[in-house]
Amino acid sequence: MASSTTILFIPGAWHSPQCFDKVIRKLETHGYNTDVVYLPSVGPVIPHSDFSEDVNQVKKQIEIAADAGQRVVVVVHSYGGIPGCEAIRGLDWETRQRQGQPGGVVHLFFCCSFIVPEGKSLISSFGGDDLPWFQVSDDRLLVTPATPKETFYNDMNEIDAKRAAETLEPHSYQTFHSNITFEAWRHVPSTYLYCLKDEAIPLPVQKMMVEEVAKGVNIQTDVVDASHSPFYTAPDHMAAAIKKAAS
């Protein structure tokens, strides 16, 4: 089954998908196909006014794998869950099979990512205020994290955390205000990886999204003793959890 499965990785804000390299290598040794999304909103020449280009890029890459007959597992990290969910509309396995099309999304894997209800944005679903560690430009078009090492990489040593932080790029702030119109987790089997040491999305918030926002939906859960970035510090655990979701 591994050879008929493509695992598509979508990073969070500010991040390159190269952050998933350790996890990807482990999954590829088990025969899985992998692909990564470079979000257009990260490090843009011109900041984006909404998340539409991110959504379109994810959709395009899902369609390529699905049209090749692949079972697609979509792995989303942090902000990546916003365009990731939106892009899955009409591309889940059951819908495509009914339409006589090959392939489709068979599983959605949230890595300390956002579960946002229809009609809400990342910002509006959490009260409408910026997080304290957001550094938003005066024109409200770009945002950077003020404390990336403490917020994203608090379980990494100083050298590795500094190296990871240096890979970050400014993110198009207005994508955080784009409203979701498709709750993919209601239509696709899903798993949520709780990260116990997460300072960006603390565990109570992760649980609130799974247990309250997605109340009534059977989302499987896994737990890892890691920060917001388990792909760096717990790649074995994360790869094993994705492999279980993909089976």
Automatic annotation (TrEMBL):
Stored SUPFAM superfamilies: alpha/beta-Hydrolases (SSF53474)
InterPro entries (UniProt xref): AB_hydrolase_1 (IPR000073), AB_hydrolase_fold (IPR029058), Sec-Metab_Biosynth_Hydrolase (IPR052897)
Recorded superkingdom: Eukaryota
A Pfam family matched in the record: Abhydrolase_6
Domain AB hydrolase-1: 7-236
GO biological process terms on file: antibiotic biosynthetic process; monocarboxylic acid biosynthetic process
Protein name, as recorded: AB hydrolase-1 domain-containing protein
Native organism: Penicillium cataractarum
